[in-house]
Amino acid sequence: MDDAIAVSGLVKTFGRTRALDGLDLTVRTGEVHGFLGPNGSGKSTTIRILLGLLRADAGTARLLGGDPWRDAVALHRRLAYVPGDVTLWPNLSGGEVIDLLGRLRGGLNQKRKAELLERFELDPRKKGRAYSKGNRQKVGLVAALASDVELLILDEPTSGLDPLMEETFRACIAEDKRNGRTVLLSSHILAEVEALCDRVTIIRNGRAVESGTLDELRHLHRTSIDVELAATPDGLAELPGVHDVKIDRGHVRFDVDAKALDDTLRYLTKFGVRSLVSQPPTLEELFLRHYEGVRS
Amino acid sequence: MTGTGKLVRLALRRDRLLLPLWIVVLAVLPMTYAASIAELYPTAADRQAYAAGSASDPSYVALLGPLFGSSLGALTAQRSGMLFVIVGLISVLTVIRHTRTEEEAGRRELLGAAVLGRHAGLTAALVVTCGADLVLGLLVTLGLLGQDLPAGGAVAFGLAFAACGWVFAMVGAVAAQLTESAGGARGIGLSVLGIAFVLRLAGDAGDGNVLHWLSPIGWVQHIRAFAGERWWVLGLAAGATAALAAVAYPLSARRDLGAGLLPARPGPAAAAPTLRTPLALAWRLHRAALLGWAVGLAVLGVVLGGTVDYARTAAEDSKQVSDIMDRLGGAGTFTDSYLAGVMSLVALAASGYAIQAALKMRTEEAALRSEPVLATAVTRTSWTASHAAFAALGPALGLAVAGVAAGLTYGLSVHDVAGQLPRVIGAAMVQLPAVWVLGALAVGLFGLLPRLAPAAWAALAACVLLGQIGAILQLSQWALDVSPFTHIPKVPAAPLAVTPLAWLVAVAAALAVAGFAGFRRRDVPVT
Asked: ω before B422 within 30° of 0 (cis)?
């Protein structure tokens, strides 16, 4: 099957700022794809190009097999979008906005809407101006999730939601995934990404710096080893792929690149391994490394 | 009250253009009235004839207020009567702008978390507004002294302006506590102002009527500046100011931030079946403003229609007036020229609506509310068209309503409704192409140069200046030709010329098409 989203070499400049600088992004049909990156890295710009709101300066973007700018209206019938900051019309009630956006998209599943209102504990009778930030997000989420569409484009959709509602959101997306919907999820919440996403793309300064499944990403990074040896391991620090070695007599700690792990462990056994603790990189470390711009 | 000083500075910074602008305009007007009355009625006998004649005409008194003498000062005071309503209007709006609007937008919350007393916001808004009213009063006094009017009267008249502003600033302060939305608070404040105007009008309509003593606008006029000042009347205004403050502050202290005293009404849980198109959404977003403008234009029609026959009598009193009217309204019989002139004023107001409706698109875009709609199966063209429809048809409705209102009022005053109504409606509707040009300009700017879209207001201001004073300043014709209103035939004084109207429609269409095309091609949102 075709990829739901296929972006390559996308460039977008605003005046002198280069918001996107050759971005590549592939979202396979039926997967939940995490889209991560620090503030201002170009996530929202990418999403707006995919929605046909902004026009790319260079590169190609395909969405559900169409051109996001030229075929915008036809494509929009097949997708739903939730912005990171849902703004509502002050004089329309939440229920009216949900129905309106659903109808403008081409239809709303009323049964699903009622169910979602209940699950998100949202009062649809309040006027737009009376909702809190979290409740505005819920209005946007219900409007999107209650639409029978193939693709959900979510730009930090859970900002302002409390942990319980965050949990509800995860359950909803998990169901959608089982039903075969494709989801592009831009997020900062790592637990959310870890729980939901099949694959992730990390973007920084308008470029994709990493893309793949979480396991694949972990493999690209160093494992921390904490090992108790019978003898002092001379020459460990000189092995390729071994970093930050700290030796306290038989107690040794170091980081090792995933591809050097096998050789290093073989080397260690020569010194009589008494105990060994290995720790794969946590997601936090993985992301922080990218967010801070330190490449491993 | 902690932090009031800082908030005052913030408000002055935000209003650094608006505040001086309205103060100067309002302060200059009484002075120019005095100068023009002195020029038109140079001798005491002239002024007495004018005072006994048209200035005592019931429709004139109803519109402007009572006349207490035939001195230049007393005539100026009456002529300036409408300005009290404007001072009240601006005072109400300024206070609400710096209190409830801030609160609704959530900016007040940001500040409230800083070192700021509970009453600092309200106090700062009142200090700024009342201070501006006081400066206005001072300038009015100085201006009238500059026209060699008696000092006592000039001081009383200046204080009347300040007092009127203060009372309505407090009305705004109370209204801001009542509702959660700034729109609702404005509605309450403006209703109070409207009632005050009607009570004043009713009170001055007949002898022995005391209704104007229930109206702050009535009070300040009955200070009788330049006609044996009654200073004690200022005490009424001071008392009302203090009383309203005594209501506003406890209300502000008792309620929560963001909450209003009147409960917010819940909306429907589901959308009506009709709410399914961009046009249906636009109707929800535009209808309140459309209704407000239609009512406003109807009132303007009634007021101006009521002055038509008065203008004829006034013209018979003064040769100079009829000369000026000839210049303003063009050739033809006097009332017909006057009608054409009046309708060009109505058309300027209707252009205000057209621009506001077109720029609603810009507001929607900047608030990021256009984005979710354009991410559905709505084309950019249909979204633009849904708003542009209001910019095009709204002014047509407004002009029609104003034409009917003015036609009925004028027709009744000369006992010829059947004859005058169609002529007056025609005089109103013939203005539509010029109004469309301004509305289409706003659409064009929105599509092509969105950041410059508010410049459409500057274009309207230029048309006002060219139309109202261009002829008097004897500007050259090419300068006057810049304004679309210059090209509107002076119906009913002149025959209906179709060619200029067709040209104006073509220009409007070209501007609108450029705007539609520009918006289809550009990035959204441009912020």
From this structure: no
Regarding whether B228 and B373 lie in a shared domain, the answer is no
Q: Tell me how far apart the alpha carbons of residues B401 and B425 are, in angstroms, rounded to a whole number.
A: 9
Does residue B114 share a domain with residue B152? yes
Residues in a beta bridge with A80: A152
Structural domain boundaries in chain A: 3-217, 222-280
Which residues on neighbouring strands pair with residue A20, listed in sequence order? A12
Give per-residue pLDDT as tens, B232-270: 999 999 999 999 999 999 988 888 776 777 777 788 999
pTM: 0.78
The crossing angle, in degrees rounded to 10, of helices A94-105 and A110-119 is 140
Q: Do B190 and B311 belong to one domain?
A: no
Cα A196 to Cα A187: distance, rounded to the nearest angstrom: 11
* B214 at interface of A, judged by CB pairs closer than 8 A: no
Minimum distance, in Å, between the CA of residue B362 and any CA atom of chain A:
14
- Enclosing domain of residue B88: 4-254
Same domain, B89 and B15: yes
Q: Is residue B175 part of a domain?
A: yes
- Whether omega before B500 lies within 30 degrees of 0, making that bond cis, reads no
- Residue A98 near residue A67 (C-beta atoms within 8 A): no
Q: Is B330 left (phi over 0), alpha (psi -120 to 50) or beta?
A: left
Domain count along chain B:
2
Interface size between A and B, measured as CB pairs under 8 A:
112
Please state the CATH superfamily assignment of the domain spanning residues A3-217 in this structure: P-loop containing nucleotide triphosphate hydrolases (3.40.50.300)
Q: Is A193 in CB contact (< 8 Å) with chain B?
A: no
Are both B81 and B217 inside the same structural domain? yes
* Rounded CA separation A54/A10 (Å): 12
Interface of B with A in 344-383 (CB under 8 A): 367-369, 371-379
Q: Please check whether residues B393 and B466 belong to one and the same domain.
A: yes
Tell me the torsion sign for CA atoms B409, B411, B414, B420: positive
pLDDT tens for chain B, residues 1 to 527? 778 888 899 889 988 888 898 898 889 888 888 888 888 888 999 899 888 877 787 767 777 888 999 999 999 999 888 889 889 989 999 999 999 888 887 787 777 777 778 888 899 999 999 999 999 999 999 999 999 999 999 999 999 999 999 999 999 999 999 888 887 888 889 889 988 988 888 788 666 678 888 999 999 999 999 998 999 999 999 999 999 999 999 988 888 776 777 777 788 999 999 999 999 999 999 998 898 889 889 888 887 887 777 667 666 666 666 666 566 544 347 788 888 888 988 999 899 999 999 999 999 999 899 999 999 999 999 999 999 999 999 999 999 999 999 999 898 888 888 999 999 999 999 999 999 999 999 999 999 999 999 899 889 888 887 876 666 667 788 888 899 999 999 888 888 999 999 999 999 999 999 999 999 999 999 87
Of B268, B277, B369, the CB nearest to A87: B369
Please tell me whether residues B349 and B217 are part of one structural domain: no
Helix (H) or strand (E) holding A210: strand A207-213
pLDDT in tens, B83-113: 898 899 899 999 999 998 888 877 877 777 7
> In percent, how much of chain B has pLDDT > 70?
94
Distance, CA of B45 to CA of B332 (rounded, Å): 30
Pairing of strands A79-82, A151-155: parallel
> Are B242 and B296 found together in one domain?
no
Residues of B in contact with A83 (CB under 8 A): 368, 371-372
- Residue B89 neighbours by CB under 8 Å, 6+ apart: B168, B190, B193
Q: Is residue B261 assigned to a domain?
A: no
The CATH number, out of the four listed (3.10.20.30, 2.80.10.50, 3.90.1300.10, 3.30.70.260), of the domain defined by the range A222-280: 3.30.70.260
Q: Please tell me the distance in Å from B524's CA to the nearest CA on chain A.
A: 5
